[in-house]
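Need residues for this backbone.
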């Protein structure tokens, strides 16, 4: 057993150890298929393919190729069939062996819990073994899951089993929860409930670390090979100087296609110090050959400059054509903004036309500035050429002439700057005039609105004056009522209760009516009276009432300084004119105010 624990061994299942009596062939076949093994003597389709069961198969062969190793138990890799759906329960059957019988757990119970799987786990912990279970019986039961390399049994009814491969641990975990009975005995020492769980073994972790280090080495090697492949090639080696090589190099210097390579070799030889009295003539001839290529390079430069000039000319012509089209587009927009056509467009159309016109003008100005810059560069180049053609004349110019020319250029520059400022001012004035034309219609509508608001304000002022007069009259009536109240109270004290019962009842009723009038406070200002009139009219138009937010939004249009709290306090002060009701249910519950002055008049 110790020799088997040193190496991985074979993964093949020794079918000679499975010659056991099968009392229930159907149950045996179901249980073995769930374990991924083919029962001996029964026809069936094995879940694990032959590549796993071949003794010479080595799953770590893929490490030599730089590919990540494949777990044979991974579904979809062609080694095992895809697992059954998770919602379909796995049916566990009775498993019969030579020396014992395994009874499945109750399917209604939850699956047995397991710890987190350690990396590279090949060892399982098996607890709940019968007391009389021997190492041979344990090997007989668990060797069906795969090749066992070591079994360490304890005296306390548990053991540790180490398999050859990691996927065999999953098959052993399947047996967790089974009840194990030795033979047909009913003694407690001959039965026990198995608990199979992952075990953390140092050997497994060491093999896993070795495997990871090997993978890391392969990955570093692969990256190094990739970097070497992508690294730019080293420059070719420069041969040493000799008369033969110098003759070959002189021929290469005369060839235009090999000139770059040859000139590099010549430079290296000169820097190495190969020039001496014997080789000076050869080096001089090679330097002379290099100098002869200067004329060829200048001709190539002139040809490229000519091509560049042609490209500049074509670009300038194309830019001029684009600028002409921009001018036409801007002219179309300016014509559209005139009064004859502008009045027939809608407000949205005018806005779009105005935006398009501004955008087109910006693009036209940018292109015109670019074109002017190109022309200035051409003029400067022409002036440089003129000055370069006559160097003798430039030397003859005295200081006074230079000063006069500088002064004339300065005055011309100032005049051009002033003209540019004048053009800018004219453009701004034109923009302002166009903006005023655009705003004429808007200003007319605003004037009409202002006139209408002024008329409404005058009408409201007249209403406020009339309401103020009514308030003064009501104040005088209230003072008279107070005097009458004091007089009646004095009479009530003097009169006796037995003689004037009828009069007292009338006075009490009158007192109640006056007290109710006193409870309703009077209006404090003309503004409150105006608000009461407007709110009464608004709520009378809405017979089902309106909430305070709707009422406040309407009043905001007339007076932006009024608040919703002020309106609500005014409504609560007049309960005979306005009442509050709740409408809706639950989340749609809403408070609404209604006008009820006419209802109070009808009840009276």
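Answer:
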């Amino acid at each position: 057993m110790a020799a088997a624990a040193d190496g991985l061994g074979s993964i093949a299942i020794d079918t000679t150890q499975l010659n056991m009596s099968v009392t229930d062939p159907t149950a045996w076949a179901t249980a073995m298929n769930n374990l991924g093994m083919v029962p001996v003597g029964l026809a069936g389709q094995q879940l694990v393919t032959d590549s796993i069961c071949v003794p010479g198969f080595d799953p770590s062969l893929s490490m030599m190729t730089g590919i990540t190793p494949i777990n044979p138990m991974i579904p979809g890799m062609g080694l095992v069939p895809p697992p059954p759906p998770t919602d379909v329960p796995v049916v566990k059957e009775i498993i019969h062996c030579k020396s014992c019988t395994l009874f499945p757990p109750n399917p209604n119970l939850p699956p047995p819990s397991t710890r987190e799987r350690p990396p590279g786990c090949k060892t399982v912990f098996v607890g709940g073994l019968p007391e009389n279970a021997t190492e041979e019986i344990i090997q007989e039961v668990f060797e069906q899951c795969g090749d066992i390399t070591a079994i360490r049994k304890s005296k306390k009814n548990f053991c540790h089993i180490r398999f050859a491969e990691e996927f065999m641990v999953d098959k052993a975990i399947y047996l967790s929860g089974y009840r194990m009975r030795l033979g047909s005995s009913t003694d407690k020492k001959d039965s026990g409930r198995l608990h199979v769980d992952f075990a953390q073994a140092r050997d497994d972790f060491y093999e896993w670390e070795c495997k990871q280090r090997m993978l890391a080495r392969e990955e570093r090697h692969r990256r190094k090979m990739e970097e070497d492949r992508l690294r730019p090639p080293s420059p070719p080696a420069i041969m040493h100087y000799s008369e033969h090589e110098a003759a070959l190099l002189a021929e290469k210097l005369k060839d235009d296609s090999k000139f770059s390579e040859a000139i590099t070799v010549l430079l290296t030889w000169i820097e190495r110090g190969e020039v001496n009295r014997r080789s000076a003539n050869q080096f001089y001839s090679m330097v002379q050959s290099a100098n002869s290529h200067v004329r060829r390079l200048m001709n190539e430069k002139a040809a490229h400059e000519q091509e560049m000039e042609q490209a500049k000319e074509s670009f300038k012509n194309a830019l001029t054509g684009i600028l002409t089209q921009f001018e036409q587009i801007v002219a179309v927009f300016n014509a559209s903004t005139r009064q004859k056509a502008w009045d027939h467009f809608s407000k949205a159309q005018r806005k779009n036309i105005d935006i398009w016109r501004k955008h087109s003008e910006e693009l036209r100005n940018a292109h015109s500035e670019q074109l002017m810059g190109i022309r200035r560069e051409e003029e400067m180049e022409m002036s440089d050429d003129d000055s370069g053609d006559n160097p003798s004349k430039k030397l003859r110019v005295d200081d006074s002439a230079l000063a006069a020319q500088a002064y004339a250029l300065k005055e011309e520059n100032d005049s051009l700057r002033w003209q540019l400022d004048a053009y800018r001012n004219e453009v701004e004035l034109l923009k302002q005039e166009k903006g005023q034309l655009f705003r004429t219609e808007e200003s007319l509508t605003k004037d009409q609105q202002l006139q209408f608001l002024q008329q409404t304000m005058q009408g409201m002022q007249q209403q406020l004056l009339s309401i103020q007069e009514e308030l003064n009259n009501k104040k005088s009536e209230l003072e008279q009522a107070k005097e009458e109240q004091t007089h009646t109270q004095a009479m009530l004290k003097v009169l006796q209760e037995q003689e004037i019962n009828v009069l007292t009842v009338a006075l009490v009723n009158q007192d109640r009516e006056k007290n109710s009038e006193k409870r309703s406070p009077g209006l404090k200002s003309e503004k409150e009276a105006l608000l009461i009139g407007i709110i009464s009219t608004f709520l009378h138009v809405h017979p089902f009432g309106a909430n305070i937010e709707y009422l406040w939004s309407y009043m905001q249009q007339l007076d932006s300084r009024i608040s919703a709290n002020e309106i609500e306090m005014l409504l609560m002060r007049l309960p005979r004119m306005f009442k509050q009701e709740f409408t809706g249910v639950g989340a749609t519950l809403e408070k609404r105010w209604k006008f009820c002055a006419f209802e109070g008049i009808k009840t009276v």
